[in-house]
Design brief:
Elements (H helix, E strand, L loop, with lengths): L1 H23 L3 H32 L6 H48 L12 H43 L1 H8 L1 H39 L1 H6 L3 H54 L4 H43 L21 E8 L10 E8 L4 E6 L5 H8 L7 E6 L2 E2 L5 H5 L2 E4 L10 H6 L7 H10 L3 H6 L17 H15 L3 E5 L7 H15 L3 E6 L10 E6 L2 E6 L1 H7 L1 H24 L1
Parallel strand pairs: 3-8, 3-9, 6-7, 7-8
Antiparallel strand pairs: 1-2, 1-4, 4-5, 9-10
Helix pairs in contact: 1-9, 2-3, 2-4, 2-9, 3-4, 3-9, 4-5, 4-6, 4-9, 5-8, 6-8, 6-9, 8-9, 13-15, 15-16, 17-18
Length: 602
């Protein structure tokens, strides 16, 4: 088991490395430039040790001349200028690469996420996905643009410093080398723990973000139920859990730094003791000891710096794994290798042929069982049934958000599984029960139906949706900001903007999810007028919760527990379907009783 886990960790590391190399490949010249600058600055820094030796032996010794001192100082300052120039180039290029790779990775993840089938998001929190795209990529940018450079530079300084140490004094170097294994072991041990805890910490922070997003999005409901105190306590719990995990990670890093400092500087202290006695005995010069101390401190500092950034590198590895999980998420709804095409012109004929379907999360409970329905082009079909009957599932299958388990759905005689989903959906528009508006202007939301539409076409669609009048009264007309989710508009206004969007899309197939069920009488009348105009000449499938809204459709399909139990016109179903007749009796009798009661009170 342990060997298997070790193998899996090794495979994961290779996967992370390959992925990052793939994102770095387009910027190979910048990487080469940064590498050259890195090597040059490391070499110059190492050369300063020799400059220091010359300065002590030739410039500060009792028999040194003023000219020799000046020459040594000029050489030393020249090295400093070269080091500053190389550091500028290295810092700029490395930071640029970090920002560029982070941006590319963020775009790649988002581009992939928006193509994933809706079933993927049933098991993924939106806040967690947002955290991965924002927080994790920002962490990665910091590490690539800083920590990786620090680690590589200090690795070069470590190797170069050791080489100069051996050249300067092998005996003293042996003392320094004794500490190397003692330092590497804790780095490896603590590093594994830091990586594991970093991944856990990032997951906990994502949970905090999800909780905040959910609370802010539903702030009215939260306050309406006086849930502020309970939500504060729950949020405090999430934050404290994230804090506790972070503190454990910080302790591991703190112990790592402490152990490294004690071991490395302890070895340097021993080296100074031996070297000092050698200088007093005349076995080495003061300049040689100064250079040796310089390189020893450099090696010690390099090991310390590597141990510091090792934790950051482990955090970056955890962040990269989370991002790669999103990039590796499989899209189950893909276009076929050789997609078929809809006939021209597109008519909008729909045929459900013995369709069955079960959600992956509930495979033993079919959501749809052997449903067969035909919707001729230009006609209307209403889907009625109790909650969980399968109405919304049929709409999702028609949009090919999921693929049927058995049977087929045909659009103009073509199985939709043989179509490119983009071509299929280009001929469909949907008006949901709860209209979805995006942050932006009214015009932006209507143009969502057809991005290349002109302002005149947007206004024409709004007029057809009976929305033009109220839009014109807004402070900035069509450029008025609607707020997050359209919060600045009323329910009826949001619904008419959604209808205008569908009109602008000019679909052959229209999907309506009882768009008037949550509106007042005046708004319902206006929206109903807009819907009737939208339905003209189009195939329409309506999810109906109130039978009064679908009395005049061409056909009504009665669903119960995912099965089609009856179909026909309203008058026919009142006779043929006891279930439908009972619903009609409950709804229409209740409406008549309410009307009679209102008349008697007046």
């Amino acid at each position: 088991m342990a060997e298997q886990q070790h193998s899996e960790r090794g495979t994961a590391k290779l996967g992370v490395l390959r992925a990052m190399l793939g994102f770095l490949k387009p910027y190979r010249w910048q990487v080469i430039g940064a590498s050259v600058a890195l090597i040059c600055t490391a070499g110059i820094t190492l050369s300063i040790g020799q400059g220091l030796r010359l300065l002590v032996d030739n410039g500060f010794s009792s028999n040194a001349s003023e000219a020799a001192l000046n020459q040594a100082l000029v050489l030393f300052f020249a090295l400093v200028l070269l080091l500053a120039t190389g550091t500028f180039v290295r810092f700029y290029l490395v930071s640029w690469i970090g920002e560029r790779v982070s941006a590319d990775l963020r775009k790649a993840v988002f581009a992939h996420v928006v193509t994933l089938h809706p079933g993927f998001f049933e098991s993924q929190l939106s806040g967690d996905i947002q955290s991965r795209i924002t927080t994790d990529t920002s962490l990665l940018q910091t590490v690539i643009g800083s920590s990786v450079s620090i680690a590589l530079r200090n690795a070069l300084m470590f190797v170069g410093g050791l080489i100069w140490l051996f050249i300067s004094n092998p005996k003293l170097t042996a003392l320094v080398m004794l500490s190397v294994p003692l330092v590497i072991v804790p780095i490896l041990v603590f590093g594994r723990r830091v990586r594991r805890l970093s991944r856990s910490s990032q997951d906990k922070i994502a949970s905090v973000g999800s909780f905040v997003g959910e609370a802010v999005k539903n702030i009215k409901l939260l306050q309406a139920f006086n849930h502020q105190t309970l939500d504060r306590k729950a949020f405090d719990g999430h934050v404290e859990v994230a804090f506790d995990v972070a503190i454990v990670r910080i302790k591991q890093r703190a112990w790592l730094s402490t152990v490294v400092i004690v071991l490395v500087l302890g070895a340097v202290t021993g080296m100074l003791w031996v070297g000092g006695h050698d200088v007093l005995a005349g076995r080495i010069s003061g300049g040689e000891l100064a250079a040796f101390i310089f390189y020893a401190v450099m090696v010690a500092a390099s090991v310390g710096a590597i141990s510091e950034v090792y934790g950051d590198l482990q955090r970056a590895a955890g962040a990269t794994e989370r991002l790669l999980e999103l990039l590796a998420a499989e899209n189950r709804i893909l276009p076929p290798a050789a997609p078929a095409h809809l006939p021209v012109p597109v008519r909008g004929d729909i045929d459900f042929r013995s369709v069955s379907f079960a959600y992956a999360s509930r495979p033993e409970h079919p959501a749809i069982s052997n449903v067969s329905l035909q919707v001729p082009a230009g006609s209307s079909l209403a889907l009625v049934g109790s909650s969980g009957a399968g109405k919304s599932t049929l709409i999702d299958l028609l949009l090919r958000f999921y693929d049927v388990s058995d049977g087929a759905i045909c659009f103009d005689g073509v199985d939709i599984r043989n179509l490119d989903p983009d071509e299929l959906r280009a001929n469909i528009a949907m008006v949901p029960q709860q209209p979805v508006l995006f942050t932006g202007s009214v015009a932006d939301n209507i143009r969502y139906g057809r991005p290349d539409a002109s302002d005149a076409e947007i206004a024409s669609a709004a007029k057809a949706a009976f929305a033009h009048e109220f839009i014109e009264r807004l402070p900035e007309g069509y450029q008025s900001f609607v707020g997050e989710g359209g919060v600045r508009l009323s329910g009826g206004q949001r619904q008419r903007v959604a209808i205008a969007r569908a009109i602008l899309a000019d679909p052959k197939l229209l999907l309506l999810d009882e768009a008037t069920s949550a509106l007042d009488a005046e708004s319902e009348y206006q929206v109903q007028q807009a819907l009737e105009r939208l339905m003209e000449g189009r195939t329409t499938v309506v999810i109906a919760h109130r039978l009064a809204t679908v009395i005049n459709v061409d056909r009504i399909a009665v669903l119960e527990n995912g099965e089609l139990v009856a179909s026909g016109r309203h008058s026919e179903l009142l006779v043929q379907s006891p279930l439908y007749a009972r619903w009609a009796s409950l709804q229409f009798d209740d409406a008549n009783n309410q009307a009679a009661s209102a008349a008697s009170e007046s």
